[in-house]
Amino acid sequence: MRAKGLSTAGRGIALGISLGLALLAGAASAQTAPPTRDDIVGKLNHFEEAAEIDLPALKQQVMERAKARIKNDPGPVNRPPIAPDLTKLPAFNAQIQFDADTPIIQPASYQAVGRIADALVHASLLPYTFLIVGHVESNSKTREANAILSQRRADAIRDVLVNTFKISTKRLHPIGLGEEQFLDRAKPTSAVNGQLQILTFAKVPEEAPAHPAATPAPATKKPAKKR
User: In DSSP terms, which residues pair with 200 in a beta bridge?
Assistant: First the structure.
């Protein structure tokens, strides 16, 4: 009887451990599940007004600041964001996995990119253009190398959205901010800072209506010759 009682207790402990592991696995699975289309639309459809940002100039500023060797650089924790106005735009932060130090998207992230594409063609988002913003967490590489990598990764996402999912290239503007604008400045080395952002940027410019072809002037009648 005693041995049997111990065996029953052991089975109870084992069952409890199994249930605990199952719950933990379920929680981990829920955390890593890709967002739904509606999740993304809900983040991006609160556009109010366009940010006054010159994108070509911003790209140049990112590279110039990343290359600079400033003696009094405050360090990543205190370094001011290079484009603070971006934080005012509706944003969706995506955990896209890339191969190390490359812009190659890992297959595990294809579904997430597909969900982004589905969201961008939702009726409520069709009137807008979007920024694809690349970031990189602080690491052993130079800020210049990370700025270049973040731009290449933003370009890679744009290319997939255009070439695979047929999103109009006019609606997508990729830009890499590298280490010049952390998502979590208090923790520069956090993986959160490697996330990619989709920002609702502006309304799609209205195309000017085509001018109708000019109507040819009626031919003037020649006066009849006098006989």
Answer: 130
Task: Round to whole Å and give the CA distance between 105 and 96.
Answer: 7
Contacts of residue 80, Cβ cutoff 8 Å, sequence gap at least 6:
74
- CA distance linking residue 153 with residue 14, whole number of Å: 46
pLDDT tens sequence across 157-205: 999 999 999 999 999 999 999 999 999 999 999 999 999 999 999 999 8
Buried b (16+ CB within 10 A) or exposed e, 3-16: eeeeeeeeeeeeee
Q: Which stretches within the chain are classed as H helix?
A: 2-32, 37-44, 55-67, 110-120, 143-163
How far is Cα 13 from Cα 142, in angstroms, rounded to an integer? Answer: 52
Separation of alpha carbons 74 and 72, rounded Å: 6
Average pLDDT, the chain: 84
Between 11 and 119, the higher pLDDT residue: 119
Give the residue among 166, 159, 157 at the shortest CA–CA distance from 121: 166
Angle between the 110-120 and 37-44 helix axes, to the nearest 10 degrees?
50
Cα–Cα distance, 212 to 219 (Å, whole number): 20
Instruction: Tell me the pTM.
Output: 0.77
